[in-house]
Every structure is written in C-alpha cells, then in structure tokens.
C-alpha cells in the first residue's frame, strides 16, 4: 500500500501541494488529474524521493520516502515528465546503464534488458541514440527503464503525452497489463485516459484534493448523468420539460438534437420513452448518458460545485 499523509510542498510564497492525504492499494490504477500547475508533478517527485516535502509523509509499502529513501525507491518504477535524459546514449546502452544502476550484472542484467525491450517492442531502435527517436519511442524507452527491475509500484507522469492515437492505445494496454498485481499511479490531464485505464481518479486543484472516486462515480456527479439525448421529428420541448424528474432541456442546433436533463438521483428514460410512444414522434437516435467527466473536471477545478 502507498500511504500519503498531509503531504505539503511550498516554493517561496506558493503552496504547490497543500495537505494531501490518500492511500492506494495493489491492483489499483490511480489517475491523478488536475489542470496545469495543480501540483501533479510536484506530488510525483515527492512520492519518488526526488523532492523533499515541506511537511507530511509518504510511505511506499511501509518505507518512509524521506527516512528510508533507497528502500522505497527500489520498489518504484518512475517515468518522469518528458523524455529520458542521456539523449546521446543509444537505447541498448541506456537500458544497460539503468540496469547496472539498479544493481544487475551479467546474465541477470541481459535478461532484464531483453524482457523490457520485448515488452515495449524496442528491438528496431536498440542501436539508435535517444535524441533521434520519435516522441512515441522516447516514451517507450522511458517506460522500459521504469519496469526494468519489475517494481511493485509504478509512478508514471503523463505517460501518453505527445503520443499519436495508436501509440496512446498501445501504452494504455501496456499499463493495464502491468497493473494486474501492482500499484500504478499515473498523472494526466487527458480525461479519456481516466476512463480508459484508471480504476480510481483523484482530482486536484491548486494543490488540494477536490474529488476521489471511480470514473463512474465522478461521471455521475455531472449534470448530464442520466440525461437523454434525442434526434427526431416533431419533438415538443414543453412536453419533455413537464415530465417528472426532468431538470431542463438543452437544444443542440449543430447536431439537431435535444438533451433532456435529469434532476440529481432521477432516472428519466422510462417517462421520456413513454412520451415518445404516446405522441408518435419519429425518433432516429436516442442516447442515455453516464455523465461527462470533462464537465465535472471543469466545474471542480474552477472551484464550483459539481
Ligand atoms: N522548482 C519550483 N520552484 C518554484 N515553483 C515551482 C517549482 N516546481 C513547481 N512549481 C510551481 O508549483 C505549482 C505546481 O506545479 P506542478 O509542476 O507540480 O504542476 P502540474 O500539475 O504537474 O502541472 P502540469 O500539468 O503543467 O505539468 C506551479 O504553480 C509551479 O509553478
């Protein structure tokens, strides 16, 4: 388990991370979300022992990251934001070097490097220097160095940043694979990533925790939770608005659709459907929404209640 208690970091007058407390269990893929400057990278640097907190603690499987830094770091694979350093090194040399830093020699070192190369499909670029790789391959080299020592904890700062849609898909699948018996924490501001790979999401704004839940729980805080969107002929807004449980109607001229919003806690699909049949409207499309994470994210990080 990872236990974070009252973690705080100040830079001069600015509090980048403010009294953050949470726990993460094995098997969880925790998405750490927040707008630019919210304190995600600062938190990750403190969790991995690269930055000292001003106050508070983080324990990685029981080891205090400040007092038992090396023991804790042995348990962590860390993908920092951006590309790996040592840009003039070739991929094979870089991975061999990291394996040695992690304490592996001889056959064990070769086995570890070969396993990471195979997992990240790096065979084709082994002889290339890191600087000359595409963004996607740089990210994959970064991930390969993070998993070399098969750590039980993976901390990945914006793992799919700058990747094209195919590479994003590939990296997300890999994260899903790696997560099976590990703790994975990923920071991101890509909301689709949260629904794609995370079992739980934390949202931070201005260094403070503002939400903690499964992607479904967070989506259900959206004003679009249980909303019904209709495309069809002859729809009457007034009749839809008068149905029990309906909070309001939004018209979407670009899509030629109407969205019927539900009051919190209400399910309105049955009464909307009954009205469609009763009035004989020709409905071509009908969609019931789970909610919109982007809207929840915006309202929480702007300081409004979701
Ligand atoms: N070394 C530093 N010195 C001074 N201020 C810093 C330092 N590092 C970060 N900050 C400030 O702390 C705040 C949080 O920064 P951080 O990089 O953790 O945010 P983030 O959520 O990772 O943002 P992004 O999504 O843009 O990467 C910002 O206001 C930033 O300017």
TrEMBL record:
Key words of the record: ATP-binding, Nucleotide-binding, Transport
The ABC transporter domain, residue ranges: 2-231
Xref: Pfam families: ABC_tran (PF00005)
Membrane-spanning ranges: none
Signal peptide: none
InterPro entries noted in UniProt: AAA+_ATPase (IPR003593), ABC_transporter-like_ATP-bd (IPR003439), P-loop_NTPase (IPR027417)
A single MF term (Gene Ontology): ATP hydrolysis activity
Family annotation (PANTHER family): ABC TRANSPORTER, ATP-BINDING PROTEIN
Stated family: Belongs to the ABC transporter superfamily.
Name by which UniProt lists this protein: ABC transporter
Annotated source species: Azotobacter vinelandii (strain DJ / ATCC BAA-1303)
